[in-house]
Amino acid sequence: MPRPQVPDVSPAPTEALPQGPAAPHGAAHARRWWALVVIGLAQLMVVLDATIVNIALPSAQESLHFTDGDRQWILTSYALPFGSLLLLGGRLADLFGRRQAFLIGLAGFAVASAAGGAATSFEMLVAARAGQGVCGALLAPAALSLLTTTFTDPGERAKAFSVFGVIAGAGGAIGLLLGGVLTQYLNWRYCLYVNLLFALGAFLGGLAVLSRPLRTARRPRLDLPGTVVVSIGLFALVFGSANAETDGWAAPSAWGLLVAGLLLLAVFVWWQTKAANPLLPLPVVLDRNRGASFLGILVIGCGLMGIFLFLTYYLQLSLGYSALRTGLAFLPMIGAMGIAPVIAAGLVPKVGPRPVVPTGLLLTAAGLARLTALDLDSDYVTGVLPALVVVGAGLGGAMAPAINLATFGVAAEDSGAASAAVNTTIQVGGSVSVALLNTVSTDATSQHIARHGGSEATVAEAALRGYAAAYWWSAALFAAGAIICSVVYRRGRVDVDPNGSHAIPV
Questions:
Q1: pLDDT, tens digit, 9 for 90 and up, residues 400-451
Q2: Quick one: 364 exposed, middle or buried, by C-beta within 10 A (0-12, 13-18, 19+)?
Q3: Least confident among 101-115, 216-230, 268-282
Q4: N or C terminus of the chain with fewer C-beta within 10 Å?
Q5: In b/e form, how buried is each residue of 413-426, taking b as 16+ CB within 10 angstroms?
Q6: Which of 390, 302, 304, 406 is nearest to 353 (CA)?
Q7: Alpha carbon separation from 152 to 14, 380, 408 (Å, rounded)
Q8: Domain ranges of the chain
Q9: What's the alpha-carbon Rg for the chain, to the nearest Å?
């Protein structure tokens, strides 16, 4: 079968990354698996911090005496800077060095976490969480960019991204488990202090095993107008989504910000076609395989936090699980997410991403559909466990290869921008979808109570209807994503262009 031409939308790297047998065999290459450990540790810290604080919120509220209305700001103050500054953080990593950005992000995250753990007021805790978000926006894309440029051999790259995909997907569940242990046996403050251990280990490891990258022939410059427009646009989307949860979608603080955010993002896309040094070069996302991968990542980002949120509600509020038991309940899902990427990594080089990623999305949809059947008498082993395993297998099978291909074939000097786009897609998709799913769930719950009265039994049943509605909408999203991805992905397996580092079909 003749080899198709590389699409024109793929960027030509100024310095081809070494591939396969041509990979370097120096000291840095020998330390690459230790680098994976360091990068994975940092990524785990960033991901679990999105959920570990959720478990600690009731205790923190009691300790610092803030209101139920203020509680949302503990979460929003982290999400706002993190979601809106990721693209800037990725470009800064390209400009000043991925290793430097990684280490600075780690140090800053540790300082902000220490300040949050020692918070004596609500305002101090919110400021510390915002500091975590800013540093996370520098750290997360730098970590993924380091992974992208460290592992260039296709076989090793697939294994490395399998590990990274498990961490990115399962980190939220690990956060729930760790948060439950720390809150129950120590104190809510340790849900923030624990980051010091992660950050210190990753920082020292980074100093030891991460080498300074070789200079590329073209050093990117910062697109200041694009940076301002996209940062404000993403901020508006995340803030508008947060306001929708508290004020309702009809409030100008919600729909007004969302519309403004979408318009600004449209302006940003237009500007990227004109800018001499675009913040996010459009060929990074316009290649068919990369574009389909970003779509798959968006679907996963939209559904992942919803799964954790509503299943946590169900286990704790409907079945009466403790915080610790809830975290333990997610362990089988984490296990399935650990096994599935290994299988996917073996399949993608043989059959390509087209059958693999959509199958993972469809499996997730099937698991979510199974969750809709849970009721107040459901047994964990026969009811919750099978659905969790299917969801975990689907997420793991789709997420790792999608992240791999979303950054595969990108020029070295644009790897930070591509990595930031992956993190932005997950973060912003999750923020918007959680607000939407919360609305769907609340409406279904309210309608059931309005029809059947407000007795205790009716309210409990209404909550189940709300969770089921969120699961059904999430399942539909995953199914639609699977169909679209199967159309957009190219046929055939992915190979390496001998004249560059492009992902092309064979």
A1: 899 889 888 887 778 888 888 888 888 888 888 888 888 888 889 989 898 8
A2: buried
A3: 216-230
A4: N
A5: bbbbbbbbbbbbbb
A6: 406
A7: 16, 42, 9
A8: 25-211+279-497, 223-238+249-273
A9: 22
CA distance 305 to 299: 11
Identify which of 110, 166, 117 has the alpha carbon closest to the alpha carbon of residue 138: 110
Domain 25-211+279-497 has CATH 1.20.1250.20: yes
10 pLDDT above the threshold of 60: no
Going 345 to 388 to 334 to 410, the CA torsion angle's sign is positive
Rounded CA-CA distance 21/373 in Å is 51
Which pLDDT band, with edges at 50, 70 and 90, does 472 fall under?
very high
Output the six-digit token pair for 102.
């990684």
CB atoms within 10 A of CB 171: 24
Element (H, E) at 231: helix 224-247
Sign of CA dihedral 189, 191, 192, 193: positive
| Residue 503 backbone phi and psi in degrees, to 5 | -85, 115
The 8-class DSSP code of residue 1 comes to -
8 A C-beta contact, residue 494 and residue 350: no
Maximum distance among all Cα pairs of the chain, rounded to whole angstroms: 71
Here the contacts of 383-390 (C-beta below 8 Å, separation 24 or greater) are: 384/311, 384/315, 384/329, 385/332, 388/311, 388/329, 388/330, 388/332, 388/333, 388/336, 389/332, 389/333, 389/335, 389/336, 390/336, 390/363, 390/364, 390/366
Write down the residue that tokens 């969302």 correspond to.
258
pLDDT of residue 200: 95
State how far the Cα of 330 lies from the Cα of 328, in Å rounded to an integer.
Answer: 5
- Please give the model's pTM, rounded to 2 decimal places: 0.82
Confidence of residue 15 (pLDDT cuts 50, 70, 90): very low
Distance CA 257, CA 233 (A): 9
